[in-house]
């Protein structure tokens, strides 16, 4: 049975980032939640939990989710928890582990996308590492993005005819996360992602399908959906999409 008490999501205000992967799962599940990133004191509340000395299992960084006495960090771990509770993960253990493996691979893709504009250090401005970013982005465009999307394409192409899901012919948090990753790539690398997605038509079809799920479509049309911007993981610098 889905939990009735509202979850609490903590993330940086003003950007979708990794928190958006959790929001999509909560929205798809129709689960009540408080998004502290949208509250005036949300940043202070998040920092207080990060700094609390009495946390036995402190999160390293946002996003993290509070579910009653549980405080869960790491996007993939949060989705593993929500997926099982809200029917967004397979029932069979082998399929559940496969879904989690896909999610962790999506996390790798997201990290590599981020590192195109911050290849030296996250503490430096993009302008301080532009030559390195240009080299990293070229490899990402030419090699890494096609390799990741090609792997997802292989999974989807091997599924039974008519299935538009990554796992077990049923919606899962992996579908939602791949949708968000594709949207991020389209924002950051409109030209390179268009080329890569032409070779991954099943991935493009999955992203379009997820956007049409009724609860997701309603969420995307609402003010709760935060737009991509130049402060997040996915950033559009035209010179990196050459």
Automatic annotation (TrEMBL):
CDD domains: GST_C_Sigma_like, GST_N_Sigma_like. Signal peptide: none annotated. Residues 99-240 form the GST C-terminal domain. Residues 6-90 form the GST N-terminal domain. SUPFAM superfamilies: GST C-terminal domain-like, Thioredoxin-like. Pfam families: GST_C_3. InterPro entries: Glutathione-S-Trfase_C-like (IPR010987), Glutathione-S-Trfase_C_sf (IPR036282), Glutathione_S-Trfase_N (IPR004045), GST_C (IPR004046), GST_superfamily (IPR050213), Thioredoxin-like_sf (IPR036249). PANTHER family: GLUTATHIONE S-TRANSFERASE. This is Glutathione S-transferase. It comes from Roseomonas gilardii.
């Amino acid at each position: 049975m889905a939990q009735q008490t509202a979850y609490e999501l903590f993330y940086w205000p003003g950007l979708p980032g990794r928190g958006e992967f959790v929001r999509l799962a909560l929205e798809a599940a129709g689960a009540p939640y408080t998004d502290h990133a949208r509250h005036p004191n949300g940043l202070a509340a998040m920092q207080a939990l990060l700094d609390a000395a009495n946390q036995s299992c402190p999160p390293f960084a946002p996003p993290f989710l509070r579910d009653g006495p549980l405080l869960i960090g790491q996007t993939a771990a949060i989705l593993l928890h929500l997926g099982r509770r809200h029917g967004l993960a397979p029932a069979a253990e082998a399929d559940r582990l496969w879904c989690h493996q896909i999610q962790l691979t999506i996390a790798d893709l997201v990290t590599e996308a981020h590192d195109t504009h911050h290849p030296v250090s996250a503490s430096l401005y993009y302008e301080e590492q532009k030559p390195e970013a240009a080299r990293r982005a070229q490899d990402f465009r030419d090699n890494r993005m096609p390799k990741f999307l090609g792997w997802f394409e292989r999974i989807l192409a091997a599924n039974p005819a008519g299935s538009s899901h990554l796992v077990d012919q049923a919606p899962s948090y992996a579908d939602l996360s791949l949708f968000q990753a594709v949207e991020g790539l389209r924002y950051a690398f409109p030209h390179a992602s268009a080329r890569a997605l032409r070779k991954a038509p099943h991935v493009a079809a999955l992203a379009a399908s997820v956007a049409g799920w009724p609860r997701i479509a309603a969420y995307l049309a609402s003010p709760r959906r935060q737009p991509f911007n130049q402060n997040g993981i996915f950033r559009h610098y035209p010179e990196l999409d050459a």
